[in-house]
Specification:
- The protein has 264 residues and is of the alpha+beta class.
- The protein has two domains: 161 residues, Jelly Rolls, CATH 2.60.120.10; 96 residues, Arc Repressor Mutant, subunit A (Orthogonal Bundle), CATH 1.10.10.
- Helices cover 41% and strands 27% of the residues.
- The protein is built from eight helices and 14 strands.
- Strands 6, 7, 8, 9, 10 and 11 form a six-stranded antiparallel sheet that branches.
- α3 packs antiparallel against α8 and α5 packs across α6.
Amino acid sequence: MAVRTSLLRRSPRGKVAANRPVPNIDGVPVEGDLLLGLSSNECDSIFPKLIFLPLRTHDVLREPGEPIKFGYFMNRGLTSVLSVMKDGKSVEVGLIGKEGFVGCPLLVGLSTSPTRAVIQIEGSGFRIAAADLEHALRDCPVLERRLQRFVQSMAMQGTQVAACNRLHEVDERLARWLLMSQDRIGSAIVPLTQELLGHMLGTRRSSVTVAAGILQKAGLITYTRGSVKIEDRPALMNAACECYESMLEQTRNWESESSQSISV
């Protein structure tokens, strides 16, 4: 597996720093936050075990209760984590973009999950076998710490989304979901359908139609078949429920705590 670098590096917060190399694996630039900025020793330990994969919409990365054979470092696109009922109905409990990793149970020695992980917006990722991940993390303390913090972030997200789905109006939840998606894919255009949004928000398609109409009439979004374009992000943030800002605030607090622990 060839690992090379280019002349720019995208930082974990999405900014590009000049004169710092961006790693690439077999000619594919690494864009996932977890893999950027690692030491050369950690890169040498983890990168040769990674396999680049295009990820298509509706690809299922894991099913509830089935053995987790692989983990996925997201590079582009959007993965939805779903809680699935016995009758087949599902609701989204988490979103993962290039900031994250699919396969968190592997990090604590577990091999199954109660949730389904499915690609909602096509992109790409780097796949790693479960056994290879376990071995590589022994030599990658920084990556391991990042993954542990990502697990905490996902737990916080799931808790907040559960409260959101119970307490807030559909239009507020839709605004929150669109903002979260934009943060993870880095685009104002979010490819999706109202039927898909209904599954994600745990509500009927007709309710999503009404909610999208409210946001579109206010000039915050434009909806065409198969995609939503965010026209006014600041106004959309005002239209979202408190959950979006709550999650951002907690993330900022943890980043500050992390910086302080590193400087000590």
